[in-house]
Specification:
heterodimer; A: alpha/beta; six-stranded mixed β-sheet; 38% helix; B: alpha/beta; Rossmann fold; five-stranded parallel β-sheet; 20 helices; 35% helix; globular
């Protein structure tokens, strides 16, 4: 099997590391070779962050380069737009429609671009944009956006709900399991 | 059992399996998790040292005592530790000793992108370079064998992409290694001229022996392909990129030992194919070496010595097809890292900017005071350089800048290498003002304990440096403490200390807002009736505050209720509690 590429992008502190950990466990349990690449240090402080998840028969590079991503899963709308150059022509963007102003917008040095989801679509991106934040809040916590997004991503894969559930159990603290399972289900529209 | 493991965690696993029992390090991205993960093994004594020089010397002491030891740091940390490294190369070791150094090509979290391979060559010590987590385990174990067989410290070179990528490993059991007896040996361990002169030939002979070893070492792997037109010499994460783009037809010489290099193997490889390309990040280290052997190789004519490489960059350099993504014709505003909401540094920096001071900065989260809208820092060089630098700046200006210049340095950075600069200020009498930003943690690298926090790496209570007493003891008479959430106090004290006709230290003390034990106040809200949209609250660059519909707006999920913005509002529009 040719290597598949999933990028998880967002704003430092939004929980993208948990999402990549969950995917890594799921894919490993399915017998794939897997590599997950994270970013630590300065960019975590509210900056733009990206995590790469790659799987297949044999994965070499730990990173995803321009034009290689099968999926871009974004926690924030502007961040989805930032990385479109990494998307394959037939790739899919799954994005939360939440908008978080970056500092240049906060200070008035730049504007948050309008109608980004429409613009991405017009540029040729297949895009699945939805309000993951509201679903996370419905599940019980705004911090569960990561599981809502994983739920939505699951619709594009053939793994069974049980396989996803097992990966969730292995990735989240027992105390928050029910909340996370609910968030996942809301994202997956189960 | 197969599992996914971070490269740094894998190195820690390798240390554990190899029977390492002593670890001393200083945190630095992308090296930090090696030591944090090593500390989780009961069998390994692990500590944060105040700086990398101390850490290497402590690890050497443990090796001398007969226990396998380790020390980890980022690339710039090795500059600090270079002094002991170059002479431990002469003494050699007793039990095995590894120094891991993690380069940061691309400068994800660093002030430069120096290539640490040059240190191996300059210090004449072997260097291994893993290309994934499985090799992280294997090479840590191999490094101890080489260290003991050849009586040398061994450098283990990581890079961001190997350190911070997870790949599949199969851990095994720990080898129990008996402590080696310590035998006094002045000729070997006392490096004064008479003895050191006798050790230098030993070092040169060791390098030759290591070169012979490298010819057949299994970590240097010749992967033979069917295509005789092209051969590639590579290592580390670049090996993965090459394998990704070149397929199995191309012959690859994958170097696991990057110093010393295997002359005959390089010659044989180059003779086996028509064209040889060296693929390496940053300097043309292997390429230049091949050229000293009169080998015809390419490398930096195809790939930049700036920034990290990637599969597409390598494909482009080799003339292979490069995938293209989807271009969006839209200006996407950048999202630079920012100081967190509630960060105690913010109020202090606001005051420095308000007073229009020259600010000699240092390394840590507080380097972010340099970016908009605070723009409150003039220079940042390396750990400790603020305290040393302000002294030279003020002396060169004959004291004329004493009243408008400050140095800022974090608590951990002050312990690392700020203290010696402060001694210089006191001893050589500049009237400099040093501000220690004491947030009670090493912040940027992800919350490591340090000698000012009262806890050690294992989380146990530890001796706590009394910063006020320390500054007094170093010869500074004026030492005071401010709360950076209190803008009026900050401004008053900074003005007083700048005006004082002698050196002073101001300790700006408040724990990092991200520490678990820090209790936040209720988030503020904006009284839209009172808000006049004057944007005074926007001057501090708080990510929780924005303008929406002509009024300030506080994001209640981010706001910690620190109240700094409230002190800037002339209309009392920022109120306690939610709306």
């Amino acid at each position: 099997m040719k290597t598949k590429n999933i990028m998880i992008v967002g704003v430092g502190g939004q929980g993208s590391l948990l999402a990549s950990k969950l995917l890594g466990k799921l894919l490993l349990s399915r017998g794939f070779d897997v590599k997950v690449s994270e970013v630590h240090g300065m960019s975590q402080r509210g900056g733009s962050v990206v995590t790469y998840v790659r799987y297949g028969d044999r994965v070499f590079s730990p990173i995803i380069d321009l034009g290689e991503a099968d999926f871009i899963v974004s926690f924030e709308l502007l961040e989805a737009a930032r990385w479109t150059q990494y998307l394959k022509p037939d790739g899919t963007i799954i994005t939360n429609t939440q908008q978080i102003n970056p500092m240049p917008v906060i200070t008035g040095a730049a504007e948050y671009p309008a109608a980004l989801a429409e613009k991405m679509k017009a540029a040729g991106c297949r895009i699945d944009a939805f309000d993951a934040l509201s679903l996370a809040e419905e599940a019980g916590s705004s911090k569960a956006v990561n599981l809502v997004l994983m739920g939505r991503l699951s619709k594009y894969f053939d793994f069974t709900p049980e396989e996803w559930k097992e990966a969730i159990v292995q990735s989240v603290p027992p105390k928050y399991l029910d909340l996370n399972v609910k968030a996942f289900a809301l994202g997956a529209e189960l | 059992m197969k599992q996914l493991m971070l490269g740094n965690e894998a190195v820690a696993r390798g240390l554990y399996e190899a029977g390492c029992s002593f670890v001393s390090s200083y945190p630095g991205t992308p090296s930090t998790e090696i030591t944090e993960c090593a500390a989780k093994y009961r069998e390994i004594y692990a500590e944060w040292a105040p700086n990398e020089k101390v850490a290497v010397e402590a690890a050497f002491g443990a090796s001398l005592a007969g226990k396998r030891s380790f020390c980890g740091m980022k690339h710039v940390g090795l500059n600090v530790a270079a002094d002991p490294l170059f002479t431990i190369s002469y003494t050699g070791v007793n039990a095995g000793m590894i120094i891991a150094v993690a380069d940061d090509a691309g400068m994800h979290s660093s002030q430069n992108e120096q290539d640490s391979r040059n240190y191996a060559k300059a210090a004449k010590v072997p260097m291994l370079e893993p290309s994934d987590a499985a090799e992280g385990i294997a090479f840590a174990k191999l490094a101890y064998e080489i260290s003991e067989q050849f009586d040398t410290p061994v450098l283990l070179k990581m890079c961001t992409r190997v350190a911070h990528s997870q790949s599949i490993v199969e851990p095994s059991e720990r080898m129990e290694i008996l402590q080696k007896p310590y035998e006094k040996n002045p000729m070997k361990y006392i490096m004064m001229p008479g003895y050191a002169k006798k050790r230098h030939p030993v070092v040169e002979a060791r390098l030759e022996a290591l070169k012979d070893y490298a010819q057949t070492a299994p970590c240097n792997r010749w992967e033979k392909g069917t295509d005789r037109k092209l051969g590639i010499i590579t290592s580390s994460t670049c090996y993965q990129y090459v394998r990704e783009v070149c397929g199995e037809d191309v012959s690859v010489l994958k170097l696991g030992m990057i110093w010393p290099l295997p002359d005959n193997l390089l010659k044989d490889f180059c003779a086996s194919v028509d064209r040889v390309v060296v693929v390496e990040e940053l300097d043309g280290f292997v390429e230049d070496y091949c050229k000293t052997l009169d080998l015809t190789v390419e490398g930096k004519n195809l790939f930049s010595n700036i920034d990290e490489l990637s599969q597409n960059k390598i494909a482009a350099g080799l003339g292979l097809p490069v995938p293209e993504g989807i271009t969006l014709n839209e200006a996407i505003p950048p999202r630079p890292p920012v100081m967190c909401a509630g960060c105690p540094h913010r109020g202090l920096y606001y005051t420095l900017k308000k007073l229009k001071l020259n600010v000699i900065g240092d390394i840590g989260c507080y380097t972010l005071g340099a970016v908009a809208p605070l723009n409150a820092v003039d220079s940042v060089i390396c750990m400790g350089a603020s305290v040393s630098g302000i002294h030279g700046f003020n002396k060169a200006n004959d004291g004329k800048t004493d009243g408008n210049t400050v140095a800022v340095i974090g608590d951990s950075t002050f312990m690392h290498s700020g203290m010696t600069g402060l001694v210089n200020i006191a001893y050589n009498d500049s009237h400099s003002t040093v501000i220690i930003l004491d947030n009670s943690i090493t912040g940027m690298t992800g919350h490591q304990q340090n000698p000012t926090t009262g806890y050690n790496l294992k989380g146990d209570p530890a001796a706590k440096v009394d910063l006020e007493a320390l500054c007094h003891a170093l010869g500074i008479r004026r030492v005071c403490v401010v709360d950076p959430y209190d803008l009026a106090q900050c401004e008053r004290v900074i003005r007083e200390e700048l005006a004082a006709p002698e050196a002073s230290v101001i300790i700006s003390r408040r724990p990092c807002a991200l520490l678990k034990y820090v209790k936040h106040n209720a988030p503020l809200h904006v009284d839209t009736e009172k808000c006049k949209n004057c944007k005074a609250c926007m001057k501090i660059g708080c990510p929780a505050i924005s303008i929406a519909d002509g009024k300030a707006k506080v994001d209640a999920t981010l706001c910690t209720g620190c109240g700094v913005c409230r002190q800037l509002c002339k209309f009392d529009a920022l109120r306690e509690g939610r709306t």
